Amino acid sequence: MIYSCEIVLTPDKAGDKEELYIQAARKLKLNRGEITAVVPERRSIDGRSRDPVYRIQASVYTNELPSGSPYQFNFTPSDASKRAAIVGSGPAGLFAALKLIELGVTPVIFERGKNVRDRRRDLRAIQQFDTVNPDSNYCFGEGGAGTYSDGKLYTRSTKRGDIKRILSLLVHHGAHPDILIDAHPHIGSNKLPKVIEAIRNTILECGGEIHFGSRVTDIYTEHNRISGLQVNGSTDFVFNQIILAPGHSARDVFRMLERRNFALESKPYALGVRIEHPQEMINRKQYHNSKYIPLLPAASYSITCQAEGKGAFSFCMCPGGIIVPAATSPGEIVVNGMSMSRRDSKFANSGFVVTVDQRDFEQQGFGGIFAGMDFQQFIEQRAFSTTGTQQAPAQRVTDFLNGITSNSLPPASYIPGFKSVPLAEIFTEEITSALQSALRMADKKLSGFISEEAVICAPESRTSSPVTVLRDKETLESTSHQGLYPAGEGCGYAGGIISAAIDGERTAMALFQKYFS
Ligand SMILES: Cc1cc2nc3c(=O)[nH]c(=O)nc-3n(C[C@H](O)[C@H](O)[C@H](O)COP(=O)(O)OP(=O)(O)OC[C@H]3O[C@@H](n4cnc5c(N)ncnc54)[C@H](O)[C@@H]3O)c2cc1C
To answer: CA spacing 20 to 30 A to 149: which of 323, 324, 386, 461?
Structure first.
């Protein structure tokens, strides 16, 4: 017999397996000896009360044992005569490749960046020497923007697809099984590269190909059908089906698509700052100074509000994380955040952004399909012009609100360092004003959000793609060209690792159905 029940444990008992059995027996009025297994299905921290507790939704077994996971994966070599190209090895591209293999189609991935190991050297070069390699950075390279990210694996949208399947695939490739039950699963930047390597091995072992250092520079068509692609401006490949998953920062790809008359649209997105607080302060606030703080994971927060007609929200919050330089070209500054699996840095950082749309773009004289992209680049270059290096312009939150330059800046996690700059110099008046209002509202929701220790740097500008590559809602094929499947975040169909992975799978299935089934 299988029962379901919620078990509540204090943090000091959270790792105690026997306690799970005792609590389950008490809750279900069973004898401890009758229970053959307690399997946690979902685990969350409830911080509403004075002392936070773990809430565990569990399946409790009597007279039988749990059967295995409903998700079993058996990757076998695919059919070499059925081939489809994939542009980009981010979560969308990699999960599209795995799906194609399951369907018997051989994926051929073209990735402009390097493998996870070699990529690390380029990340160090940005951090330490201000050198941005336009093909290998925090956004570009094996695993995409997901590899050296925070590795949070939750998505607001449950409508998009089978999240558990994606998490199970990550576990199959070496991620910790806890991600299957945690309400806010997280892998961490130190663990993600190994998982990505394991996915690469599956793809290669099944006959798939991954071409690193292979920037797709053109896509060929004949009578509005895909006929091939060009790599690095010189080498041509024949393909009739392409999954296009280049991520939100592939500005050159979007421009090439427009030159080739693919259907594209400008898209609103969000832009703002990254805010950093001492993690210890966030812990105290979120865990109400509980005696259990040392036993609890670094606390997070999520804030949304409306400010001066703009949506405002915290974005990609990284408890115990660091702020990273995520530019993809020299001469621009972009900030983002990441963390290691232990989330043990002294800082809590988060994007804090407001929505920007056609009105903001036009005000600065930007129009057409690339209005948002040009505006984004304009802000990033403006930020760079204030420091001339990967040092990020920064200001104490209190000074930003009072419109004064910071005389000093608090300690921060950003390795290239901060330079004191009034951030109003970077944004438009409307954005500055909306951010100021939103910060004041955020402080009402999380007191201490505005404090002397809080610092903001800018710009947080790569929150989602500034364009949509249009596709049919049902067939997922480009509305302008047969054989092209726009996928993932860059084409406007995902936001985050999980939703990009789900979208990659969906496009692979759609492609298979039309061309190979
Ligand atoms: C620092 C950082 C932290 C993040 N933290 C999180 C997090 O904690 N949780 C979360 O869910 N999301 C996070 N994100 C966002 C997440 O990484 C993305 O949403 C996700 O990776 C999008 O997946 P994708 O496959 O659509 O695109 P991407 O991951 O961007 O992958 C696109 C790939 O295409 C390649 N490419 C681009 N142009 C070409 C070309 N012309 N030819 C060949 N290849 C090309 C790129 O090199 C890249 O590898 C973070 C992002 C960053 C930058």
So the answer is: 386
> ipTM of the predicted structure?
0.99
261 CA → ligand 1 middle, Å: 25
Q: Which of 316, 322, 335, 350 to mutate to test the pocket of ligand 1 (most atoms within 8 A of CB)?
A: 316
Q: Is 185 in the pocket of ligand 1 (CB under 6 A)?
A: no
Q: Which domains does the chain have, with CATH numbers?
A: 2-62 (3.30.70), 79-264+470-515 (3.50.50.60), 269-460 (no CATH)
3-class DSSP state for residue 355? strand
Q: What is the pLDDT along the chain (517 residues), one digit of tens a residue?
A: 999 999 999 999 998 999 999 999 999 999 999 999 999 999 999 999 889 999 999 999 999 999 888 888 989 999 999 999 999 999 999 999 999 999 999 999 999 999 999 999 999 999 999 999 999 999 999 999 989 987 889 776 656 688 999 999 999 999 999 999 999 999 988 999 999 999 999 999 999 999 999 999 999 999 999 999 999 999 999 999 999 999 999 999 999 999 999 999 999 999 999 999 999 999 999 999 999 999 999 999 999 999 999 999 999 999 999 999 999 999 999 999 999 989 999 999 999 999 999 999 999 999 999 999 999 999 999 999 999 999 999 999 999 999 999 999 999 999 999 999 999 999 999 999 999 999 999 999 999 999 999 999 999 999 999 999 999 999 999 999 999 999 999 999 999 999 999 999 999 999 999 999 9
Closest by Cα among 434, 420, 454 to 356: 434
Q: Which residues lie below 8 Å from residue 352, measured CB to CB, with a gap of 6+?
A: 272, 273, 274, 275, 303, 312, 313, 314, 315, 435, 438, 439, 442, 456, 460
Q: How far is the CA of 91 from the centre of ligand 1 (A)?
A: 7
Strands (E), 445-495: 455-460, 467-469, 484-486
Q: Which atom of ligand 1 is nearest to the CA of 147?
A: 17
- Centre of ligand 1 to C-alpha 193, Å, is 13
